[in-house]
Write a structure and sequence with these properties.
Blueprint (H helix, E strand, L loop, with lengths): L2 E7 L5 E6 L10 E10 L7 E5 L8 E5 L7 E10 L2 E5 L3 E4 L6
Length: 102
């Protein structure tokens, strides 16, 4: 799975992900990109997935999931996918979106 995954709420509806790619020797095939996943802690079936194209220039990757519910706890995970399919997910991390100041 992707390494060193960090997740933080940017505002009341957006979560920012940063991560390092998995070690190249463990990628089965050619890295086609990453899938960022977030799901409400209480409803794991409501998974939101955002696909990110790999950036070969930097070591640290960056991506966002927006359109989330405000002031809600989300479990988040990242995986790398290749032509044969999805790789293993990173260990889920819990993050809470911000409460609107209005």
């Amino acid at each position: 799975p992707p390494q060193g995954v960090e997740v933080k709420a940017v505002n009341s509806t957006t979560i920012e992900f940063t991560w390092n790619p998995p070690p190249q020797q463990f990628i089965n095939g050619i890295n086609q990109g990453y899938k960022l996943m977030a799901w409400p802690e209480r409803s794991p079936e409501d998974v939101i997935i955002v696909t990110i194209t790999p950036d070969y220039h930097g070591t640290r990757h960056l991506g966002y999931i927006s359109g989330l519910k405000k002031f809600t706890w989300y479990l988040t995970s990242v995986l790398c996918f290749t032509t044969p399919g999805n790789g293993p997910r990173s260990v889920p991390k819990l993050v809470q979106t911000h409460e609107d100041s209005k």
